[in-house]
Specification:
Radius of gyration: 15 Å
Pfam family, one: S_100
Protein name: SNTAN protein
GO molecular function: transition metal ion binding
Oligomer: single chain
Distance between the termini: 22 Å
CATH topology: Recoverin, domain 1
Length: about 100
């Protein structure tokens, strides 16, 4: 559907697709599934962040109350928070172009 979309549109479409492919019938992820998805699909962004207090807080929140589920909005907020604290973000900022 986004064959002619911009790189940014394709990136967000990919996030939505990955989320939807892992979500339950209510369109939500369990906290455990969210944590697993981050560890498998977002590894390069979270790698090396284990000692940062904010990272520990985010992961701790996912470990608590496993019956609570994460909706797409909360999932996106988690991705944004993890991206902003990531060491990889600085490397990305140093790249001038995607081509």
């Amino acid at each position: 559907a986004l064959g002619k979309g911009s790189d940014l549109e394709k990136a967000f479409a990919t996030v939505a697709l990955v989320y939807n492919n892992n979500a339950d019938t209510e369109g939500k992820l369990s906290r455990a599934e969210t944590k697993s998805l981050l560890q498998t699909q977002f590894w390069h962004f979270i790698q090396g962040q284990e000692n940062k207090p904010k990272y520990q807080e985010i992961i701790s929140d996912l470990d608590e109350e496993p019956e609570n589920k994460i909706d797409f909005e909360d999932f996106m907020m988690t991705l944004v928070m993890l991206t902003l604290m990531s060491d990889l973000l600085q490397e990305i900022k140093n790249v001038k172009t995607t081509k």
